[in-house]
Amino acid sequence: MPRLLVVLAFVGCISVAKSLSPEASEIATKHAIPYQANLRIEVIDSDIRYCAGTLISPNYVLTAANCGDGASKILVDMGVDDVENRQEPTWRTYLGDAFIAHPLYNKSTGYHDIGLIHLFEPAEINDAIQLVTLPDHRYKNLAGKMARISGWGNVNASTDLDHRLLRYADIPIGSHSNCLPQFPYPNFAQLCPAQSDSYFQTYDFGAPLMLKDVQIGIATATSFDNGIETNPQIYTRVDPYLSWIMNNTDVTIEQQKDHRLAVH
Ligand SMILES: *[C@@H]1O[C@H](CO)[C@@H](O)[C@H](O)[C@H]1NC(C)=O
Ligand SMILES: *[C@@H]1O[C@H](CO)[C@@H](O)[C@H](O)[C@H]1NC(C)=O
Ligand SMILES: *[C@@H]1O[C@H](CO)[C@@H](O)[C@H](O)[C@H]1NC(C)=O
């Protein structure tokens, strides 16, 4: 019986909040998340794919590898608040001229779902466009911590301004058992949220998961309930890939003493 109540409450929530992203989220203060990129990706023989990313240097954006699948053209929007308002004075669009998926990225397992976009020209850094902070060490245990996801979601489904603004939600990090059964084999480099009523959407793949001011994760995959995103969802951890990021970008990370940067 309690289970049925939960399901009904969820359905009721969906009818008003379908295109919000993440579900059960708050609207971010304008430009309070200045490192978040909106990605518009042209895919051969398909519709435009929306994804998210983060600016890690003026020349590179960090995102999910799956966002680059089949991409023929990548546009990176920075300084965005209302994703339908390109007249916004802070809005800048940059062309991505290379997509670097992790060499071990595996579409069927979802392992190593991490990618980089090189920008054709460097992004302007200003009040509305800034670099995200990456971890400087490996985390021993993230389970139990509260982290923050942000995204625009399926913005084009709505003309309602509330559905077009960048939103965020705080979610508790769980253990790998929280990924079951939809994601049966999460690996060391993946994070599973504990039960939460906040969800990112497929349009948020590549969005940052933040622990205070540090990006610890990348939204990469979701399960569905009647076509609607639901738990479990899964994130790629950033900390196991710091060497790979440094090797493939102009980013340098000062390694914290007494911590080893993983090689992967
Ligand atoms: C992806 O993983 C599956 C399952 O482990 C494996 O069978 C497949 O060969 C892998 N694909 C690539 C391209 O490595
Ligand atoms: C939303 O859809 C309209 C009409 O299909 C299109 O003109 C517009 O460019 C889309 N918005 C974005 C952000 O792509
Ligand atoms: C990064 O580059 C160094 C030096 O070439 C190499 O030893 C290391 O294996 C690389 N790491 C990754 C993750 O690519």
Element layout with pairings:
Blueprint: H1 2-17, E1 26-27, E2 36-43, E3 49-57, E4 60-63, E5 71-78, E6 92-101, E7 115-119, E8 146-151, E9 167-172, E10 190-191, E11 208-211, E12 214-225, E13 228-237, H2 242-248
Antiparallel strand pairs: 1-9, 2-3, 2-5, 3-4, 4-7, 5-6, 6-7, 8-9, 8-11, 10-13, 11-12, 12-13
One 2-acetamido-2-deoxy-beta-D-glucopyranose is lined by residues 83-84, 156.
GO molecular function: serine-type endopeptidase activity
Signal peptide: 1-19
Pfam families: Trypsin
Q: What structural keywords apply?
A:
264 residues; mainly beta; Thrombin, subunit H; seven-stranded antiparallel β-sheet; binds 2-acetamido-2-deoxy-beta-D-glucopyranose; Trypsin_dom; hydrolase; serine-type endopeptidase activity
Can you tell me about this structure?
The protein is mostly beta strands and 264 residues long. Among the domains are: 34-119, Thrombin, subunit H; 145-239, Thrombin, subunit H (Beta Barrel). It contains two helices and 13 strands; from the N terminus they run αβββββββββββββα. The strands form two sheets. It has a seven-stranded antiparallel β-sheet, with no helix packed on it. The protein has a six-stranded antiparallel β-barrel with strand order 2-3-4-7-6-5. It starts with a helix and ends in a 16-residue tail after the last helix. The structure holds 2-acetamido-2-deoxy-beta-D-glucopyranose (3 copies).
